[in-house]
Design a protein that fits this description.
- This protein is mainly alpha-helical.
- The chain has helices spanning about 5-20, 35-45, 50-55, 60-65, 75-85, 85-95.
- Helix 2 (about 35-45) crosses helix 5 (about 75-85).
- The chain is elongated and about 60 Å long.
- It starts with a helix and ends with a helix.
- The model has no long low-confidence stretch (mean pLDDT about 90).
């Protein structure tokens, strides 16, 4: 790595550190909308228990998501987006 590239990388890391400490605002922030879990479930026509079984979580977890006490992350969030986009195809795929 040449000196110019190293200096650029170092400046970038120092900027990241300032943002993390709150000394500098991030130049760009990407926000991803939180899935409306209850609305997604209602699109399927399933009960809480049936939907929880379908996506592989406990009924309690689903209740917490629907009531805003917890929020789906990672694969669960991705799966909810898939179910939201095409509920019937997702149900067929997950039931097979």
């Amino acid at each position: 790595m040449n000196k110019m590239m190293f200096d650029e990388l170092l400046a970038s890391v120092e900027e990241m550190d300032k943002i993390a400490r709150g000394e500098l605002k991030a130049g760009r922030v990407t926000e991803i909308a939180e899935p409306a879990v209850q609305a997604v479930r209602e699109k399927t026509g399933l009960s809480q228990m049936g939907f929880a079984r379908l996506i592989g979580v406990s009924k309690r977890t689903l209740e917490n998501w629907e009531q805003g006490r917890r929020h789906p992350t990672g694969p669960a969030r991705a799966l909810l987006r898939i179910v939201d986009a095409d509920p019937q195809s997702a149900i067929r795929a997950l039931h097979s």
